């Protein structure tokens, strides 16, 4: 039997099998989808679509670039405007507002047309960036970062939601890969942009450049998103206040507790505070699950009803969360490259982008080849293997060969995330997602919730991963022990994601 007979060829949710609106055979509990070719990259970038892709990718690139550019120029900014004791809050405030904004995307699309919502996101991001550019002190800079986070969270969440309404379903996988690749581009462009202007003593110009790019992206919205001009829902439903408070609370606790183990001079009390914050955040997220489950089909929710019914959508979100959590390791790779491998800072920096490089490469190749079920299942297990290798090879005075193993393992982890990501995210956006009993296959609000939730889950999971990473590194009695705690703990999270991917396989 050829492999293609038992690995479905593509993530295209093409012509449904007769008998059910979402492609499910009414006589079977297994998903049955016709094997039809996915759209090509040429199809994605055809006239009438390339503008849409450019605008959606541009919005995510702004968010990603700003995340990294600010980190690289912040020392220069603090030297000029002061406020060193609030240094870590620049990132904390940004993450908090971004997570809350991403949770509100579904609600926003229920009351506003898509193009207007996207312009609002760009205006918020541009306004916050302009405030940063002229900030006379740290207090004003923090206000700008909060507004930037609101706009950035909306841009990231709207990107996935608008893929659904602006592009045909056969192109969702490639579009998801393109959007996700912008984080890799941002990782390369952001530090370089911030570093250049900081070196020139003109750090404010980096924000001016971002404002200019925001204006350019906004100018393309009316034409690029004309296909997504779906009218908002007649009734948006009740506002999910409880869910928003729980999401915001978890993000706030993670952000604030992370400050206890940031920088030098970590104390036992700081570790206890950070670890306690991690536990509290997990409790708040558990409360979110309870509230969302009890809300019912017509209740106030930020997640689609299918999340808690068939179980496959929940498994997809869990897989996405696990892969995003382990990606938080990037921030610590250069540190251990220097301390354990004796690398120069520049070389250690290149080691730090190995995961991101593998991620971008893996997703572009995977989106081109297809084989959704194979990619979505095998990818997370590659991440597990990579982190196992990283864990057992951490020791002091590492030889050059060991450093090479680290680089290969990090790249392998990135490839594993990359080959699974576009298929997992495209499947999560699919209408109905194994929920034919609820009759939600044609419900745009449910689709918007499912798509927007990808970004919310992504950012919350990254915050959880970063919080754990900070605690693990602080707990180590020496750099080698810290590294093993870091890689081993994140590897355990990767195992959880790989098991969830097996559960989610029928949805791909």
What does this molecule look like?
With 508 residues, the protein is mainly alpha-helical. It contains 18 helices and no strands. It has helices at residues 41-44, 50-81, 89-103, 105-111, 114-134, 138-166, 172-200, 204-224, 241-258, 268-295, 312-326, 333-339, 345-352, 354-369, 372-392, 400-429, 444-475, 479-504.
List the topology elements.
Layout (H helix, E strand, L loop, with lengths): L40 H4 L5 H32 L7 H15 L1 H7 L2 H21 L3 H29 L5 H29 L3 H21 L16 H18 L9 H28 L16 H15 L6 H7 L5 H8 L1 H16 L2 H21 L7 H30 L14 H32 L3 H26 L4
Helix pairs in contact: 2-6, 2-7, 2-8, 3-6, 3-9, 3-17, 4-17, 5-6, 5-8, 6-7, 6-17, 7-14, 7-16, 9-10, 9-17, 10-17, 11-16, 11-17, 11-18, 12-13, 14-16, 15-16, 15-18, 17-18
Q: Distance between the terminal alpha carbons, to the nearest Å?
A: 21 Å
CATH superfamily grouping of the largest domain: MFS general substrate transporter like domains
Q: What Rg, in angstroms, do the CA atoms define?
A: 22 Å
Structural class: mainly alpha
| Uncertain residue ranges | 1-37, 434-442
Looking at the structure, the CATH topology of the largest domain is Growth Hormone, Chain: A
Q: Per the principal axes of the C-alpha atoms, what is the gross shape?
A: globular
The number of domains: 2
CATH class of the largest domain: Mainly Alpha
Q: Quick check: average pLDDT?
A: 83
Question: What is the N-to-C order of secondary-structure elements (H for helix, E for strand)?
Answer: HHHHHHHHHHHHHHHHHH
**Which architecture of the largest domain per CATH?**
Up-down Bundle
The total of beta strands comes to: 0
């Amino acid at each position: 039997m050829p492999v293609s007979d038992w690995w479905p060829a593509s993530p295209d949710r093409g012509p449904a099998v007769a008998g059910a609106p979402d492609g499910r055979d009414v006589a079977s509990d297994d998903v049955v989808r016709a094997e039809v070719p996915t759209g090509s990259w040429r199809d994605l970038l055809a006239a009438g679509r390339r503008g849409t892709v450019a605008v959606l990718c541009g919005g995510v690139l702004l968010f990603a670039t700003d995340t990294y550019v600010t980190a690289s120029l912040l020392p220069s900014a603090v030297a000029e405007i002061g406020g060193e004791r609030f240094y870590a809050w620049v990132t904390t405030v940004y993450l908090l507002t971004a997570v809350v904004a991403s949770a509100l995307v579904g609600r926003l699309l229920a009351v506003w047309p898509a193009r207007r919502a996207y312009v609002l996101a760009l205006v918020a991001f541009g306004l916050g960036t302009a405030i940063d550019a002229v900030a006379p002190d740290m207090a004003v800079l923090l206000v700008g970062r909060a507004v930037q986070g609101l706009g950035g969270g909306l841009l990231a969440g709207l990107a996935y939601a608008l893929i659904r309404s602006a592009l045909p379903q056969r192109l969702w996988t490639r579009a998801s890969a393109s959007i996700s690749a912008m984080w890799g581009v941002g990782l390369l462009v952001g530090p370089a942009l911030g570093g250049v202007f900081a070196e020139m003593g003109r750090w404010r110009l980096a924000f001016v450049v971002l404002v200019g790019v925001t204006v350019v992206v906004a100018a393309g919205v009316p034409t690029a998103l004309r296909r997504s001009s779906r009218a908002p829902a007649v009734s948006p439903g009740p506002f999910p206040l409880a869910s928003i408070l729980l999401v915001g609370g978890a993000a706030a606790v993670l952000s604030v507790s992370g400050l206890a183990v940031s920088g030098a001079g970590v104390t036992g009390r700081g570790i206890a505070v950070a670890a306690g914050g991690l536990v509290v955040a997990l409790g708040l997220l558990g409360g979110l699950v309870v509230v969302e489950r009890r809300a019912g089909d017509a209740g106030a929710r930020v997640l689609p009803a299918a999340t808690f019914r068939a179980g496959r959508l929940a498994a997809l979100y869990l897989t996405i969360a696990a892969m995003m959590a382990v990606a938080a390791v990037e921030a610590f790779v250069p540190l251990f490259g220097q301390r354990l491998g004796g690398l120069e800072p520049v070389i250690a920096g290149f080691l730090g982008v190995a995961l991101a490089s593998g991620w971008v490469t893996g997703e572009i190749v995977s989106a081109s080849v297809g084989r959704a079920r194979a990619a979505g299942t095998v990818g997370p297990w590659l991440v597990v293997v990579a982190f196992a290798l990283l864990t057992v090879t951490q020791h002091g005075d590492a030889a050059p060969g060991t450093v090479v193993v680290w680089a290969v393992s990090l790249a392998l982890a990135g490839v594993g995330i990359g080959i699974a990501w576009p298929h997992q995210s495209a499947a999560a956006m699919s209408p109905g997602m194994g929920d034919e009993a609820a009759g939600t296959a044609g419900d745009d609000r449910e689709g918007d919730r499912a798509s927007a939730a990808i970004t919310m889950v992504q950012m919350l999971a990254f915050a959880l991963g970063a919080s754990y990473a900070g605690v693990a590194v602080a707990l180590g009695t020496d750099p080698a022990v810290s590294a093993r705690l870091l890689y081993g703990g994140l590897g355990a999270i990767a195992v959880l994601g790989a098991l969830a991917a097996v559960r989610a396989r029928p949805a791909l």
